[in-house]
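Sequence and fold:
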Amino acid sequence: MRFTPTPQASRNKPSSEPWVLQRQAEVYERMARFTPTICLRQDQHQANRGWLLEVASCERLFGGLNGLLNTVWESLDGLEYPVYLGRHATATGAWWISKHKAAERHADWLEQDTCPALDDLPVQALDAPLHTLQTWEQCGFHTLAQLMNLPRDGFIQRFGNTLRGELDSGFGLQHRDAPALLVHAPTEFFEQREELPFHTQQHEALLRHAERLLKRLEDWLNARQEHTRALHWTFEEAHAQIELPLRSANPMHQAKDWLHLLKHRLQRLPFTDDVRHVLLRCEHTEPWQTHSLSLFPSATETETHWDSTCDLLRARLGEQAVLFAHTAPDPRPEHSLQFKPTPAQASQRKVPTALPGSTPRPLWLLPQARAVQGALPSWTLNSRWQLLSGPERVDYGWWDNTPCQRDYYCAMNPQRSMVWIYRDLQMDPPQWYWHGVFA
């Protein structure tokens, strides 16, 4: 069986164009549903490319050969470019048929012989250089049968082992110089572009086109058994484009969930002109996480509901409306806690209140450390300050522009509040600062 997604208009275009690679990836994701054995075939001297599928071991899974062929034909509905199908007992034979005797109708595809004769195919079916094709025409060779009847040694001496190897592989003969197939791996990222037939700014129309892209993304994620937390949308106008990063605290792969978030974000986009193209890109994915089913609600379900609520708030109010706390490996308190739009992993969600071997640290830090006013801390017997723990030396950052050398103390101030203060040793004389409060 052979599948060739080569549109007529693209045969003279270089294969490195992004839209050609995008179409190849799109067709691969559809064809990979039918068999795990699928390879890419690319002609060296002609701009022909396509897919070879081995389906002999998969027929029974689809109710026989006709059931499999029906499913393959139906899976190609909705493509915006022509495709050419051919099948044969050999992979190279199917490749030749797809180029010169391709099925153009559903009935032709079902009635196509499993092993049609290859003798009458033109010599242009071979991936031969132009000067070789001209030589064959001058010699009166027009079909593959005429080439097969030529003496083997003379053919190899005149035209090389590669063309003879392709002939032998098409007719089912073993040859050590038969062309090798390129094993295709799925793309590591998803990127597709949708052109709007009618340029518009209406949200409902944009959502319909976005839903088509999300359906393709869902198929791509399902084939990889992965989901994602972040998508990047681009809405292209005539003279500008609007970038829209869309994030989810809970990893998702279904199109309906992402469409629900996009619906809220579209209402806040400042469109100044009609949108002509919509582009969707997904770069970062995560493997599926299996959850055990239980009779009672679990902590995982509670976190999922909370994450969904955060997603809606960010979609309606903006990315900075909901931020998640992350810890960083930096002893400086002002740098040890960071706030980001995406949540931390489950193992990192519990923010430690103290570093290993350190005194307790408050989670409530002042935006900027304030100088201690009034009576300065003193640890004498009659002092208005009461020492609770410390000192903790923080000597860090001497290699960058924000070095610090401090002694931190946990103390009770004259107002009987438990505070976190430090003595800045870089100042001469050292000064006292108030940095945090314990709740």
Observations:
- Residues 1-16, 346-357 have pLDDT under 50 and may be disordered.
- The two ends are 71 Å apart (CA to CA).
